[in-house]
């Protein structure tokens, strides 16, 4: 049995048997055009605020100097500016840490695993996973329980959010998932433009939008809709959209989706990330191997890398693009940055002295 399987089993019990705590304040406001994610009406601000504290607390790592926010920085739309992250003990991780913006709309949560669909389950992996260790807390579960029992602030917040009693470790997972659900990004310049403010973006970005949605470049085929991805959950539909593509990166060390499915045709296939805030989430791709937006555009213009393999998606055929068009397309992608999201104090570190 995997080391955190008992925690997942206990979490399932908690979610089904524990009554929701009263809300401690207003839930984040959504723009009228954005449908709320599933379960939005049940979101508990008290649990979310507890989750924010946990998200930034370095005491949740074995070395005491790594938190979830170490690999998911707010100023980078909760992504990691390193190509791949490093664990608490210095172990190099396998893949780039993707942005958590609008993660509540994401039906699958990992780069290449269609089975991990709940935030409460996913976050146990960096905390307690051991191959490679990230936060390094496997076997240190009682250390966390002692922290929550002895820290006065945590005692008060856990009691307010969940009531007295219960397994604080399981409640921790619920609270951190609740905080991540509040990470809504929908205030970019392009959002304002689509809402009717024709001056919100410059002519270069408008020209770039025309290119992005053109049949010649076909960027919208994988990066369409409200979330600029073909992998999203919409409560208005009876099903989730989840897509994995081989974009011709030719990474011989990472089988991608095939590691889970065992199917050779899934080798090199990864989940489509959202392009919201893409200008601040470099480096790009699952392996962090592309440093700039220009590099991404040139990669797709070339139809992937030489030696990218015969299984690359037909949606990456390559295209011709001029230098001026690259500038326009880049300007459009930059217009997807939600500056307010990057600095919103509701999402910020509650430990000012801690990094």
**Overall shape:** globular
Give average pLDDT, whole number: 89
- From the N-terminal CA to the C-terminal CA, the straight-line distance is 35 Å
What is the number of helical segments per DSSP (H or I, 4+ residues)?
A: 14
Largest sheet: 2 strands, antiparallel
Domain module tally: 2
CATH superfamily of the largest domain: Cytochrome c-like domain
CATH class identity of the largest domain: Mainly Alpha
User: Architecture of the largest domain in CATH?
Assistant: Orthogonal Bundle
In total, how many beta strands? Answer: 2
H/E series: HHHHHHHHHHEHEHHH
Helix content: 25-40%
The amount of beta strand, in percent, is: under 5%
Task: Explain what this protein looks like in three dimensions.
The protein is mostly helical and 355 residues long. It folds into 2 domains: 5-185 and 341-347, Cytochrome c-like domain (Cytochrome Bc1 Complex, Chain D, domain 2, Orthogonal Bundle); 189-340, Orthogonal Bundle (Cytochrome Bc1 Complex, Chain D, domain 2), CATH 1.10.760.10. 34% of the residues lie in helices and 1% in strands. It has 14 helices and 2 strands. It has a two-stranded antiparallel sheet. The protein is globular, with a radius of gyration of 21 Å. Mean pLDDT is 89; it is low at 1-25.
Secondary structure topology:
Blueprint lengths: L4 H13 L27 H12 L11 H4 L47 H4 L1 H5 L12 H10 L1 H11 L5 H14 L7 H6 L8 H10 L31 E2 L12 H4 L8 E2 L21 H9 L21 H12 L4 H5 L12
Antiparallel strand pairs: 1-2
Keyword list:
355 residues; Cytochrome Bc1 Complex, Chain D, domain 2; two-stranded antiparallel sheet; 2 strands; 34% helix; disordered N terminus
């Amino acid at each position: 049995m995997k080391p955190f399987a008992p925690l997942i089993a206990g979490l399932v019990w908690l979610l089904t048997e524990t009554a929701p705590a009263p809300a401690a304040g207003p839930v984040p406001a959504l723009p009228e055009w954005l449908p709320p994610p599933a379960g939005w009406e049940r979101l508990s601000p008290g649990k979310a605020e507890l989750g924010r504290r946990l998200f930034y607390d370095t005491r949740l790592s074995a070395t005491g100097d790594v938190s979830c926010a170490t690999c998911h920085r707010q100023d980078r739309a909760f992504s990691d500016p390193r190509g791949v992250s490093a664990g608490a003990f210095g172990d190099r991780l396998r893949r780039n840490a993707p942005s958590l913006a609008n993660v509540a709309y994401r039906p699958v949560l990992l780069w290449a695993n269609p089975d991990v669909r709940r935030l409460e389950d996913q976050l146990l992996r960096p905390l307690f996973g051991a191959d490679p260790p990230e936060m390094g807390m496997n076997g240190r579960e009682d250390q966390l329980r002692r922290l929550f029992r002895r820290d006065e602030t945590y005692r008060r917040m856990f009691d307010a959010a969940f009531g007295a009693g219960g397994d604080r470790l399981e409640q921790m997972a619920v609270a951190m998932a609740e905080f991540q659900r509040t990470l809504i990004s929908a205030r970019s310049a392009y959002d304002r433009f689509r809402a009717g403010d024709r001056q919100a973006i410059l002519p270069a970005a408008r020209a770039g939008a025309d290119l992005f949605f053109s049949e010649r470049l076909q960027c919208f085929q994988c990066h369409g809709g409200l979330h600029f991805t073909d992998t999203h959950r919409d409560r208005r539909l009876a099903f989730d959209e989840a897509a994995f593509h081989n974009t011709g990166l030719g990474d011989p060390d990472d089988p991608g989706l095939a590691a889970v499915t065992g199917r050779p045709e899934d080798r090199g296939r990864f989940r489509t990330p959202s392009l919201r805030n893409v200008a601040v989430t470099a480096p790009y791709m699952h392996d962090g191997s592309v440093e700039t937006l220009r590099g991404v555009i040139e990669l797709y213009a070339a139809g992937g890398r030489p030696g990218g393999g015969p299984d690359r998606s037909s949606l990456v055929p390559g295209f011709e693009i001029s230098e001026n068009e690259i500038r326009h397309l880049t300007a459009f992608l930059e217009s997807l940055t939600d500056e307010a999201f990057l600095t919103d104090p509701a999402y910020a570190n509650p430990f000012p002295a801690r990094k």
